[in-house]
Amino acid sequence: MLTIEKKSLKVGKRVNTAHVDKVIKNYKQERWAHNSERIGKEDSLSAWWSIEEIEEFLAEAKSHNADGIKFYFAAYDETTAQLPEYVGLQTLVMVGTKQKQNADGTTKNKDVYVHTEKGNEIVAYNMARLCPPFCGSANNLDTDGDLGITIVDRGDKGMIVI
Q1: How does pLDDT run across 16-41, given as a tens digit for each residue?
Q2: Residue 21 burial class via C-beta count within 10 angstroms: exposed 0-12, middle 13-18, buried 19 and up
Q3: Whole-angstrom Cα distance, residue 51 to residue 39?
Q4: How far is CA 74 from CA 44, 81, 134, 161, in A?
Q5: Does the reported pTM lie above 0.70?
Q6: How far separated are the first and last CA of the chain, in Å rounded?
Q7: Residues of 93-123 as b/e, b for ≥16 C-beta within 10 angstroms?
């Protein structure tokens, strides 16, 4: 009997609350404050999808032979925002990928496309609920105690609490 061993493609790992707090704090201080100032409103801090949606997208990606998912950082404009409040905000786009080996032995996770009547289309998912503007709390930020707050020093422009 021939046994074929499948190589794991895992690259990530579970992290703890302290790690999540730290990387989100870093993001707020190093990226979010600058993004918000540049676009003239609070940029999004998170993108939310239901487990049902994610499972359906994973099933679709697998059906097209994807072996991974790439999350692209992206931003809406007037033509792509599903709501006027989303214009200018950052979002995430999930894209099905397939690992390919290059001639030099390195690997690359290539985006998966499928042929449709309209031509080749990428296997992708977007249109998450963004926070802000839709966070579900009175002050419009998700500060219900799960991840705490961050004080962002904007230099001569003062400080903000997020």
Answers
A1: 999 999 999 999 988 998 999 999 99
A2: middle
A3: 31
A4: 11, 11, 18, 25
A5: yes
A6: 60
A7: bbbbbbeeeeeeeeeebeebbeeeeeeeeeb
Longest pairwise C-alpha distance within the chain: 72
Tell me the pLDDT tens digit for each residue of 105-128: 899 999 999 999 999 999 999 999
Which conformational region is residue 124 in: left (phi greater than 0), alpha (psi within -120 to 50 degrees), or beta?
Answer: beta
CA 88 to centroid of chain Cα atoms: 16
Total residue length of the chain: 162
Tell me the one-letter amino acid at 59: A
* Residue 137: partners with Cβ closer than 8 Å, 6 or more residues away: 143, 144
Half-sphere exposure of 113 (CA within 13 A, CB side): 8
What residue type is 2 in one-letter code?
A: L
Beta carbons of 111 and 97 less than 8 angstroms apart = yes
Number of neighbouring beta carbons within 10 Å of residue 83 = 13
| Residue 103, CA distances (Å) to 65, 71, 100, 107, 108 in order | 21, 25, 10, 9, 11
